[in-house]
Amino acid sequence: MDRTLAGDLARLPELLQAARDVAAREVAGLPGRPVAAPGPAPGRAPLPAEGAGGEGALAYFTERWAPGFSGSAGPRYLGFVTGGATPASVAGDWLTSAFDQNLSGAGGSRAEELERETVAWLRELFGLGAEHSGAFVTGATMSNTVGLAIGREWAGERLGVDVSRQGAAALGPLDVLSGSPHSSVAKAMSVLGLGRDRLRRVPLLPGGREAVDVAALEAALAERAGRPVIVVANAGTVNTVDFDDLRAIAALKERYDFWLHVDGAFGAFAALSPRHAALVDGLDAADSVCVDLHKWLNVPYDAAVQFTRRRDLQVAVFHNASPYLGLPAGEPEFLHLTPENSRRLRALPAWFSLVAYGRAGHREIVERNVALARRLGAGIEALPGLRLLAPVRLNVVCFTLAEDPSEERVARLARAVAASGEAFVTPTVYDGVPGLRAAFSNWRTTEADTDRVLRVLAASL
Prior knowledge:
lyase; 4-stranded antiparallel β-sheet; 16 helices; single chain; pyridoxal phosphate; PyrdxlP-dep_Trfase_major; PyrdxlP-dep_de-COase
């Protein structure tokens, strides 16, 4: 064994303690550190010829790279839809690496059963019935990809084509209908051989809504009667967190034959709150569902879950036929359910957080974030120079400059906010108008943080 490696093994407790100290300082200091770290990165160093050991690598990292990392896990990072990491989930993530379970198969470990337990808890959390099975994947993009892959197989079943064996070309054109699809849907269609151009946008409700017009959707389905169709419904759009009427869309299945996939990447968490659960009424009727856990569940990257009613079709798509792995039988191992064979135990951080804080703790995060988003929205309305682009429906505030909201001026405002180190927001375009988004999903964020964001927006105008 390499002497440096042997030395690290002998001093593993000290190495882990040193890493623990760095991590503890980082987590404790998040509220006070700059939220973004603009500026150039260090120049690339050559590959080390000789190893410096674990503690040397830790020292090199903390000196050279750590100062340039963003505070994206902190309370005023409001870009994209970015959660943090609850203390319990961080502990679970550390143990995921320490136990380093091989989830290619059960492999003599109970880790796979822990994942099944976690999936069952999440299914209950989101109000899905026992007909839905689930599996962990990397994020919403992969969850949407898996859901559409199963939908593609369903379309083949309707046409007498085995797509997993004969290929997407044997299926022929397959339309995907949606009102305000996330960009990952088109990406998934490209990956799956359906083609980005088969995404058909259905008219939206009037009045600046991002929710689909169900009557227009029915008309689109009627036009395609006799041909399988996939419908992607949205439970929380990225700009304004608008929700399609899932119950009304599901009711259309009584008259039309289509696969219903619901993208609930972060909007599905409305189910946790009695105040907002009606927004996802009908989610259980979906054929497949996407939920992203490293958003509002506040577990470390990467973690998402995918649910479906048709595990048989899922196995048909993703099974791995190999003598050393065996064919799926009974309760299939997870390598037969997602694109990955090798996969880390992503369920463990989620398991830790669910055990540590329960339904009530995660409901509190959701409801507090919604209240804070509305607080920021009210502050923006009262701030000269800014205006809301849409009502604050849940946890995202979509806003722009009151006068001349050009792409250049809006981008300048975003850069000024980031340069302040106080907050971070990301650009968007809503109804043709350049704007900014502030998305609340971090468990740490407080009223004081929201007020600091308002102050830096005012100062940056």
